[in-house]
Amino acid sequence: MKLRSIIVEDEPTSREILKNYLKKYCPNVEVLGQAANVDEALVLIRNHDLDLVFLDVEMPYGNAFDLLDKVGDINFETVFVTAYNHYAIDALNAHASYYLMKPISIDELIKAVDYVTEIRAKEEALQNRVLVSRTKSVEGKISIPTLDGFEVLNTEDILYCKADDNYTEIYLNTNKKKLVSKTLKYFEDALLDSGFARVHKSYLVNVSEVVKYIKGKGGSVELSNGKQIMVSASKKSELLSYFR
């Protein structure tokens, strides 16, 4: 599929190199424009329906994170391109799809574009329609510890689990909530074969209860009870693989 993109980079030479690399090695990327600073980038983003933004971190009169804050509700993927590796954690927190170091490796550039292409193709197929999970409702039970013993839950009754430090909040389709003295990682492992997906560092969802996927900064899912949960960029591909 075609990816509508822009390049945001303050150095003209770097912009030209990236544009030429994309033209030669990533022909499905259509570069609609180039920007040298935050203000120019905002104009391009607001005037185009974009799939991908190649984004340098350091620019005049602001940086990449200032730009993303000004954009607000983001419905495109971002690939950070920078000479500085110390921005990696910030880029991850900004839901970047990929992080490219300068000078740009052609192999890494191709990997980044392939990754975004896969994500956008799945999003396009799933957007604005009820999702049909390949994971059928699994009959099973899980026990959770209580003060005086343990309680048994039907896994199909669990909508989602939310991390609360070393505790986990379990939300049921009966509008009840259970607070359990186990980490979310414990439940991720325990429910691995029961149709549950880790969509965020703080959330584990019952895939059979997902009714809609919504584009956004990292995307989000809507559950059968109307609850919307953010999806981390790093978890998006894994989540979308559950659906056809």
Overview of the structural elements:
With 244 residues, this protein is of the alpha/beta class. The protein has 2 domains: 3-126, Response regulator (Rossmann fold, 3-Layer(aba) Sandwich); 141-240, Beta Barrel (OB fold (Dihydrolipoamide Acetyltransferase, E2P)), CATH 2.40.50.1020. It is 30% helix and 34% strand. The chain contains 7 helices and 17 strands. It has helices spanning 12-25, 38-47, 64-71, 88-93, 106-126, 184-190, 233-240, and strands spanning 3-8, 29-35, 52-56, 58-59, 62-63, 77-82, 98-101, 141-146, 149-154, 158-164, 167-172, 177-180, 196-200, 203-206, 210-214, 220-223, 228-230. Strands 2-1-3-6-7 form a 5-stranded parallel sheet. β13 (196-200) and β14 (203-206) form a beta hairpin. α2 packs parallel to α3 (64-71). The two termini are 17 Å apart. Residues 128-138 have low confidence and may be disordered.
Describe the secondary-structure layout.
Blueprint: E1 3-8, H1 12-25, E2 29-35, H2 38-47, E3 52-56, E4 58-59, E5 62-63, H3 64-71, E6 77-82, H4 88-93, E7 98-101, H5 106-126, E8 141-146, E9 149-154, E10 158-164, E11 167-172, E12 177-180, H6 184-190, E13 196-200, E14 203-206, E15 210-214, E16 220-223, E17 228-230, H7 233-240
Parallel strand pairs: 1-2, 1-3, 3-6, 6-7
Antiparallel strand pairs: 4-5, 8-9, 10-11, 10-14, 11-12, 13-14, 15-16, 16-17
Helix pairs in contact: 2-3
The third-level CATH topology of the largest domain is Rossmann fold
The neighbouring-strand order within the major sheet is 2-1-3-6-7
Quote the beta fraction.
25-35%
Please identify which CATH superfamily of the largest domain we are dealing with: Response regulator
CATH architecture of the largest domain: 3-Layer(aba) Sandwich
* Mean pLDDT figure: 85
Radius of gyration: 21 Å
Distance between the termini: 17 Å
CATH top-level class of the largest domain: Alpha Beta
Largest sheet: 5 strands, parallel
